[in-house]
Amino acid sequence: MMTDVFEASWQAPEVEVMEALRDWAVAFAELNQHMATWMALPTTDAHALGQVLWAASAGDPLSPARLGQRIGMTSGSVTVLVDRLEAAGLLERSREHTDRRRVTLRPTAAAQERARGFMATSSTEIAAVLHDAEPAELQAATAFLRRMVAAAAGGSARLREERA
């Protein structure tokens, strides 16, 4: 039986974590807005470019399909977005796999340089928190957030099924 979230008795730690997640989402969205302004891009384009930059720096570059999954866009919309970023000289498509049909998205040197300036100004505090955290704390946070994402994805899947 599903709990009525408006009638449930919430414990203080549950409320605090939901408020902290909301606060992080708002702060992250504000940083994305600042990045868009810094990069002179629409917010969605800046968010997508940020994902491409992050994935490339982590050594796991994105395909257009994976980019779409990360930013919640359809393949057609991602194609248009990637075309814009490529035309702006911020992103390159490459075919690095044995299957030449597979496309990998890479940030250009210009995009990396502009983003580096933004990150140096905006994200030193976030990097410090991550570097100062104990591995066990990061693992627990990651596990918890993955469960929250899975729960939200379950709700979204039910809503999509109801619309179909």
Run of helices and strands: HHHHEEHHH
State which percent range the strand residues make up: under 5%
Q: Gap between N and C termini, in Å?
A: 24 Å
**Shape by Cα distribution:** globular
Oligomer classification: single chain
The count of helical stretches stands at 7
With strands numbered from the N-terminus, the spatial order across the biggest sheet is 1-2
Radius of gyration: 19 Å
Number of E strands:
2
* Unreliable parts: none
> Which percent bin holds the helix content?
over 70%
Overall mean pLDDT stands at: 92
Largest sheet: 2 strands, antiparallel
- What structural class do you assign from the helix and strand content? mainly alpha
Question: Care to describe what's here?
Answer:
This protein has helices spanning 12-39, 43-57, 64-71, 75-87, 109-122, 124-132, 135-163; strands at residues 91-94, 104-107. Helix content is 71%, strand content 5%. The chain has 164 residues and is mainly alpha-helical. It has 7 helices and 2 strands, in the order ααααββααα. Helix 1 (12-39) crosses helix 5 (109-122). The protein has a two-stranded antiparallel ribbon with strand order 1-2. The model has no long low-confidence stretch (mean pLDDT 92).
Overview features:
globular; mainly alpha; 164 residues; single chain
Nutshell version of this structure?
The protein has 7 helices and 2 strands, in the order ααααββααα.
